[in-house]
What we know:
The chain is of the alpha+beta class.
Amino acid sequence: MSKFNLYKTSDKRQYYWTLEADNGEIIATSETYVSKAGAQNGISAVKKAAPVATILDVSVYQ
Length: 62
């Protein structure tokens, strides 16, 4: 089962998350957040948006 991993940055001042696929591969990494609550809100936002997100193939414009 895929999972979100919540981390502190190396200086222990900020937080970020990764999304890990079933096979252990990291498939997404967040920006950094100044608070743990901010990172948790970021996770919630992705969980809410991803199931209904459309795919836009921007490569056709490149």
